[in-house]
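ingest -> validate -> predict -> emit
validate: passed (alphabet ok, no gaps, 295 aa)
predict: started
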Amino acid sequence: MPLKHAFCAPGGVAGHASCVPVSVARRAALVFFLAVLAAPTLRAEYVVLRSGQRLTVTGYELLGDKYRLQMKGGFVEVPADQVVAIEPEDVFTPVPAAQLVPQPFYRDLVEAAAKRYNMDADLITSVIAVESNFDPKAVSRKNARGLMQLLPETAAQLGVKNIDDPAENIDGGTRYLRDLLQKYNNDLSLALAAYNAGPDKVQLYGRVPPFSETLSYVRRVKRGYDKNKSKPATKPAAPAQAPTAPGTAGTSLFGTSPAPGIGGSSPPQPSPAQGMGGPSPLGASQPLQQPRSFP
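emit:
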């Protein structure tokens, strides 16, 4: 006599197990499964894995040491020890797809300021990287603030109203750096030293001040700038007549064309005692000072 497989469950009358043929159980399971698929999905849930991946599921079931997850298009099984949390979807705010595309930090603001003051955007980015590591809320022990670490008094002279606003901070810092490059006849090392320690210290020593912080600062910015310029070019090269700074392999610090008074026929530069030299682009009678690191 052939054996018939049956599905048994505890219970029944007088403690006996109640059994139904396997074929009947399979049909019942199939009906239940189709009913689940036909039922409207009220909301999805997130299954968070140890790897950090979040899976959007419309149902799940723990089967021994595995989770069986119902997802759009089918089912998938994952080890239970790999699931760290199951959370309702409405806990999370969907991230716009545009934010998933890697973009250089504040590149649009940097390029706008670079164009406005005829500067090299890669130089500005290199300064920001060393000054604040792209943290718009950075504040130094000398109270220099923002992406380009402007002192409040310097920011005021530059016309910066909100020093913590990235756009204004980048604009003011770029303008200040442009003025320093003009002051030091496009000598990048001196301009960076003045940005870090203040023009008065550069005037006092007649060179990059022998402060370990300033020497390190100049090296780090120039190293980052050279690295940025060594990447494959994504924009037209600067004209040959644009001025170059030592160690930048012919790269113009002033964008695609020399700033007024800079380049080929530069007028004689004033002596250090004359401060910023000539008419200030800000219309101020006093030179800008930003001695951020030293008294």
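The longest helix spans residues 212-230.
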